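Q: Give me the 3D complex with iron/sulfur cluster.
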Amino acid sequence: MNETGQPYQYQRRELVEPDWTRLPGWRHVTREQWESAQWQRANCVKNLKQLRAVLGDLIDERFYADLAEDQQQHATMSMLVPPQMLNTMVPHEAPTTEALYADPVRRYMIPVASDRRPDWPSHPYATRDSLHEHDMWVAEGLTHRYPTKVLAELLPTCPQYCGHCTRMDLVGNSTPTVDKLKLTLKPVDRYEGMIAYLKTHPGVRDVVVSGGDVANVPWKNLESFLMRLLDIETIRDIRLATKALMGLPQHWLQPDVVEGMERVARTAARRGVNLAIHTHVNHANSLTPLVAKAAQTALEVGVRDVRNQGVLMRGVNATSADLLDLCFALQGEAGILPYYFYMCDMIPNAEHWRVAVWQAQQLQHDIMGYLPGYATPRIVCDVPFVGKRWVHMLTEYDREHGISYWTKNYRTSIEADDAEALSRRYPYYDPIDTLPESGQKWWRKQEATVAV
Ligand code: SF4
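A: Here is the predicted complex, encoded as structure tokens.
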């Protein structure tokens, strides 16, 4: 409890760009370099050697050894951290090893072996494509899961790779433990296949244009794809998915990108289409004046809304104070609407990040009533074969074994002939370490019989 007598005390905090010259490798980097998208991309940290070059001897060898072990044995994503993001780790002092270990942004962008759970690194039912997006492709990269909406994965890369990426099956370079699925068509043919599907399926009105991250599509190609979407009368909503608005705001501030966005936004407005940007920020420390500038610029050129879809993760943001600090910074300082927090999906080696459904329900309860209602995010569980569900929408919950059951009210594209699809109950699983001892014991017995 604090001096207001409330469980959470709101305090306005101005955004600050952490001083990058506190890091030995960037001591001489100028503001002009820092604000250049090209410089940011060229100086992304992709391996231990480059991380060492930035952090110098501020960090002990044991951290680098821990990281090397993780990359060899556990990581589902390769390393790719833009300077902008690295600079928000231990943001306001020269980092020490302990502070870097404890940092919330580091915990998901630069995971180390000692972060993972030795007892249950993966849930027995964790899978590579946990949402079965690939199974629901109706054209290469085009997932038709909900009746009126599609997800268009234009490409499999991003300017930054997050350790917990739900599309770890497809996105990024292969790692020692994960051989990635490869897109086979040339981009131009892939886009053609998507447009052809949308033209012949007028019931689809909403397209999430994603990847990967659309910031990695050369602007000319992205603009041309968006203009073609806008030519399809039946498309009424377009949402651009880009974590880079936060991870590499310099990209979205480049004059050719801003001018191009303005052309697309003007066309969308003329045609009555809702054009929005969806970004992915998980912690208040990631919001800096440059991120706010990128969001404001998009709004100024006519994008209708910039919204945040964060991921709820232990060690990163799974407390009500962390979530509210982030939401107030998004809403009050950056012009970004706090929209969703997804529970971290059931991918391999993610158990240390995942929270149980009851914990997510408690967090949803605890964040109500502080933010404006329209800016109070929903915490959602993306249930395999079901889709997003608010965390309170389960129909039954076996807390001992950590199994919640969910129902749905539509068929996905692979269930046209499934008579049971709308009456079946679909399971979702809590992390086993959050269960009572009797539940953990039950899973230990099951483990031998569950196909992973
Ligand atoms: S930006 Fe999104 S798609 Fe790219 S690695 Fe992160 S979570 Fe995955």
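A quick observation: The longest helix spans residues 255-270.
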